[in-house]
Amino acid sequence: MDLILEGIKEALRLLLTLDREVLGITALSLALSGFATLLSMLIGVSIGVVLALNTFPGKRVLISLVNTGMGLPPVVVGLFVSILLWRNGPLGSLHLLYTPMAIVIAQAVIATPIIAGLSLAALQQLPHDLRLQILTLGATRSQMVWLLIKEARLPLLAAIMAGFGGVISEVGASIMVGGNIKGSTRVLTTATVMETSKGNFDIAIALSVVLLALAFGVNAALTHIQQRRRPR
């Protein structure tokens, strides 16, 4: 218990003294995970829309793949992204391995199936007749899609929060593709693992507290948007 209290005190000290390294790691964590979530949102919601609003052969197989992807182990993602970005790999010429962009790619791969699966479920829950009503009123197909997304915006925001939560807290893929390089690819999760391995439990707990506070702050902001009272 004393160790946990010391960690919390250390977290407050690091934040109140505006420790440059901690602030840098925190800012990098937020930037990379935020960018990865944005990419995942654009791709994942699009996949959810296509699967929810269209009928074609193999649709159930694709949905099964998306649902399976929602539980992708981060270390597996890290392995395959590392192979793709390795100097002799298909994308090795881009020299992205052990860079912040490599972390973004890995995190986007993790979050996209989560957002896609939850977006699909959100759109499938809408009444089927709603699409017909919108089209009957003269809307184009793109306008119909936009109106359906607006109608399902609350569960879609929940999908985005789930995607962000999945990447801000992952560590395996980030270490494998980023390398935990100080000042470049070291984020809160990888820094916590490093400090724990060194036996610096107070600093590790402090970084964990900062990570939890960051995740809470972002999700609180999204929840505020989600739960705003809608006009009657």
- Which descriptor suits the 3D outline? globular
Count of discrete domains: 1
Distance between the termini: 50 Å
Provide the CATH topology.
Answer: MetI-like fold
Q: What characterizes the major β-sheet? A: none
Report the order of strands and helices: HHHHHHHHHHH
* Helix content bin: over 70%
Shape-level CATH architecture = Orthogonal Bundle
Broad CATH class? Mainly Alpha
* Residue-averaged pLDDT: 89
Radius of gyration: 20 Å
Low-confidence stretches: none
Count of discrete alpha- or pi-helical segments spanning 4 or more residues: 11
CATH superfamily membership = MetI-like
Structural class by secondary-structure content = mainly alpha
Number of strands: 0
> Beta fraction of the residues?
under 5%
